[in-house]
Design a protein that fits this description.
It is a single chain. 69% of the residues lie in helices and 12% in strands. It is built from 5 helices and 2 strands; from the N terminus they run αββαααα. It has helices at residues 3-22, 49-70, 72-82, 87-96, 100-118; strands at 27-33, 39-45. Strands 1-2 form a two-stranded antiparallel ribbon. Helix 2 (49-70) packs across helix 3 and helix 2 crosses helix 5.
Amino acid sequence: MTDENLKEFRKRLKRIEKKNRKGGGWFKPRPTIGSDGLTKVRRGAWVPWKFLFMLAGGFLAFKVFLLINLGENVYHQKLSVVDDGTAVGEIGVRLMELDQVTLRMRDVVVPIVDNIFVN
C-alpha cells in the first residue's frame, strides 16, 4: 500500500469515526442479549422524528392554506372530484379531508392572515 493510499484510508476512517461519535447515520447500535446470554450489538433503525413532525406540520399548513384560499364548499367539491374509487383516490381523500385540527388551525390563521393583508 502506498503512502498516499494509506493517508486517504486513514482520512476516511477518521470521517467515519467522527460521524459515529456525533451519532450520525440512520442506524443506531442497540444492545440485545442473545439466547446464549451474551450481549450482542444489533444495529436498529433510527427514526427521524424531527423530520416526520416537520413534514406533518407542513402538510397541515398546506391543508389550512388551501382551505382558506378555496373556501369550504369548493374544497369539498375538489375532494369529490379526486374520489374516483381507486385506492390512490381514496387515500388522497382520506389525507385531505377536513378534520378538527385543520378546522381549528383555520380559525387561528384566518384572523392573522386578514390582519396582515387587509391593513
